[in-house]
Amino acid sequence: MNDHLSEESWAAAVLDPSDPAVAEHLQGCAECRAEVSSFTEAINAARAVTLRAAERPESFWRAQRLAITERTVNRTFPSPWKRLAWVAATVILVVLSTTVVSRRNTPSLRTRTTRVETDDALLLSVQQSIQSDLPQALEPAELLTEEINRAAVSRKSR
Ligand SMILES: [Zn+2]
Q1: Which end of the chain has fewer CB atoms surrounding its CB within 10 Å, N or C?
Q2: Does some domain include residue 148?
């Protein structure tokens, strides 16, 4: 017998052995029948295992959870002070980075205000130096006050 099940019909036979064309060949061919049945048996066994796993009682899963928790508890973690040190280091790093970032963000404002302050101070010092160092500049004002005083005196004397 040369025309056994083709690969497609073989797959169809595994998935649905009641397919008419497949069933006809399987009836006449013991070789294909055995092969298909062994394959479907394997599939059924795997399905049964999966189903059994899914249908395991809650107690089984509780035991599994317990075993996992025990294993994680018994695992050797770094000593608590080491972990604490890591946490502290991380916190310090985060704080430092945020302060650096906030500092890096504010300087434009800060330098602007300091520049304003220095500008004000400069203006003030310039004004002071004008008032103190340049009496010549004040001469007109002095003349004016003298004039006013003289006028007042002459008005009084009149
Ligand atoms: Zn066959």
Answers
A1: C
A2: no
